[in-house]
Amino acid sequence: MDKDGKNKMISGGLLSFVQKVGNDLGMEEKIASLKPKTAQGDRSAVSVRFEQLNLNDIINILSSIDAYSDLEVDSLSLNRRFDDKNLADLYMEISKMI
Predict the structure, then answer these.
(1) Among residues 84, 88, 92, 85, which one has the least CA distance to residue 51?
(2) Who's near 85: CB < 8 A, 6+ residues apart?
(3) Segment 67-92, tens digit of pLDDT
(4) Rounded distance, CA 70 to CA 25, Å?
(5) H or E segment and range at residue 61
(6) CB count, 10 Å around CB of 5?
(7) Which of these, 2, 38, 48, 60, is most buried using a 10 Å CB contact count?
């Protein structure tokens, strides 16, 4: 267990993990973009963009990622949608220790 009390680690690749999170949360159709990124050293990284999320969706995604000790959100941006002010688009860069 690490200093934050998290002891889960993902066993597969980072791309498949993000797709699984989307599927598990019923948000696979909200993943607009998912791409591998160049990472330094002993890390793998992806960029992911979710569209048309409500606040509960965002919290569920972040909680799913936070549960794993080998994952880190390197950057995150939220943009309120112009077509529906109750929804937002979420862009994240996530990395994993290899």
Answers:
(1) 88
(2) none
(3) 999 999 999 999 999 999 999 999 99
(4) 20
(5) helix 55-66
(6) 7
(7) 48
Burial (CB < 10 A; 0-12, 13-18, 19+), residue 18, is: buried
Whole-Å CA distances, 67 to 62, 71, 98: 9, 9, 17
**Mean pLDDT for the chain?**
92
Could you tell me if residue 93 is left (phi over 0), alpha (psi between -120 and 50 degrees) or otherwise beta? beta
Question: Where does the chain show beta strands of DSSP type E?
Answer: 31-37, 43-53, 71-80, 88-97
Tell me the torsion sign for CA atoms 82, 27, 5, 68: negative
What are the φ/ψ torsions at residue 28 (nearest 5 degrees)?
-60, -35
Q: Which residues contact 84 (CB under 8 A, 6 or more apart)?
A: 52
Each residue's pLDDT tens digit, 48-57 = 999 999 999 9
Calpha distance 55→43 (Å, rounded): 29
Q: For the chain, what's the residue count? A: 98
